[in-house]
Amino acid sequence: MTEKSSERVALPPIPAKRYFTIGEVSELCAVKPHVLRYWEQEFTQLKPVKRRGNRRYYQHHEVLLIRRIRDLLYEQGFTINGARNRLDEGRHHGAGVAGGAEPSEVQVAVEETPVLSVDLNALRNDLVEVQHLLAQLKEIARHQ
């Protein structure tokens, strides 16, 4: 696979949106859609919302989790079982860095476990959208 080269693949920034389609997540994480569907079966933490026609919609924290899984598998060379165990270790260590988890693991663990963090991420994304709309309104008002 070409991702196994010594250079890390630069991933695009994650837009401030509430939900992402599987195609968008595929592009944001440089992983094909069929791989994402497979990872859903292998990683219990990954549970996108399914709507009409079984279409998947991923939230911001799930995109971050997919990037973490991708890093473990493609960049660090973990097996599926090894990556699963590494993610579980980060979750069991809790949110404290003193527990021995690296900061990136703590970030993933915090985003996976409390429901409140998911709501805060959605709220932050909504506020960013409102901020962009206000900026557009100011621009329109300035030109009138």
TrEMBL record:
<dbReference type="InterPro" id="IPR000551">
    <property type="entry name" value="MerR-type_HTH_dom"/>
</dbReference>
<dbReference type="GO" id="GO:0003677">
    <property type="term" value="F:DNA binding"/>
</dbReference>
<dbReference type="InterPro" id="IPR009061">
    <property type="entry name" value="DNA-bd_dom_put_sf"/>
</dbReference>
<dbReference type="GO" id="GO:0003700">
    <property type="term" value="F:DNA-binding transcription factor activity"/>
</dbReference>
<feature type="domain" description="HTH merR-type">
    <location>
        <begin position="19"/>
        <end position="89"/>
    </location>
</feature>
<dbReference type="Pfam" id="PF13411">
    <property type="entry name" value="MerR_1"/>
</dbReference>
<dbReference type="InterPro" id="IPR047057">
    <property type="entry name" value="MerR_fam"/>
</dbReference>
<protein>
    <submittedName>
        <fullName>Transcriptional regulator, MerR family</fullName>
    </submittedName>
</protein>
<keyword id="KW-0238">DNA-binding</keyword>
